[in-house]
Specification:
Distance between the termini: 28 Å
Order of helices and strands: HHHH
Shape: flat
Mean pLDDT: 83
Structural class: mainly alpha
Helix content: over 70%
């Protein structure tokens, strides 16, 4: 995902701004994790820092991260 976004940012015309939100990317990947299975799900969970957590715990962790940003 980072390579695709990096390529997209690199191909923008000179002087055009690109804004990538780490929080938005993490939440989007969290949603993808919900639908992933087996090894893909495990890899996504590890990448997002949710290794070994169930769905409820991942949801709690995501909400905690969003609350921390709001404070």
């Amino acid at each position: 995902a980072a390579l695709v976004l990096g390529r997209h940012a690199a191909t923008r015309p000179a002087g055009e701004n690109v804004l990538l939100s780490p929080t938005s990317l993490a939440l989007a990947l969290r949603l993808v994790t919900e639908g992933a299975v087996d090894g893909v799900r495990d890899s996504l969970q590890a990448t997002l820092g949710f290794a070994g957590l169930g769905d409820a715990a991942m949801g709690d962790a995501s909400r905690a991260r969003l609350r921390a940003l709001a404070d």
